[in-house]
Request: fold
Amino acid sequence: MDACRFPYALVEINDLSTVVSVGCVLPTYFIHLRPATYRFILFLGIVFGLSTWLIEIAGAILCPFYPFSILMFSPLNIVLIAILTGITRVTRVGLWSTVVLVCVIFDWVGIRALVWSLS
Reply:
């Protein structure tokens, strides 16, 4: 696959990463977990939520004329990164799971709408 054709798969990667992220975080509402296990599952949800942004960065590096790399950066990624850096202090399961789910879903909708409006 040509490196410059890679960004066209961004919508599918966005869909997949959102589903996996929600799949990681959603069970924390229903299953009682130890704090370390909860933090690990939240970590996985955040990493999968940020994977679309990491793919955008890789697309910008591999194909310098990749036009969406700056446009698709979501401020919600800053929130996810902030939670990820402070994950050792995370204690309230419902609050942080909800924040991660909202960030991932809004980011998914924003990327979906941006790609739809540009195509």
